[in-house]
Design a protein that fits this description.
The chain is mainly alpha-helical. The protein contains 3 helices and no strands.
Length: 74
């Protein structure tokens, strides 16, 4: 069950993140470019940290949701 939750959270995070990047590129590409004004590593750091934060948030939501549903069934 734990591996399935990790996998589901990773897939959901990837889909949300890719859609978010595509929407930013289509609507206003300068907002994406502004992240890299301080340097390439600063931009990569911002993108990486936001991806990790989103993954942890989704993982906790899935874990709490599955625990809640499991307790509701009993």
């Amino acid at each position: 069950m734990f591996k399935k939750t990790l996998k589901d959270a990773a897939m959901t995070t990837a889909v949300i993140y890719v859609l978010n990047i595509l929407i930013k590129l289509i609507s206003n590409p300068s907002s994406l470019i502004e992240m890299f004004e301080a340097g390439v590593w600063a931009g990569v750091g911002v993108i990486g940290s936001s991806l990790i934060f989103l993954y942890v948030l989704i993982f906790f939501v899935f874990t709490i949701g599955k625990a809640f549903m499991k307790s509701k069934k009993q």
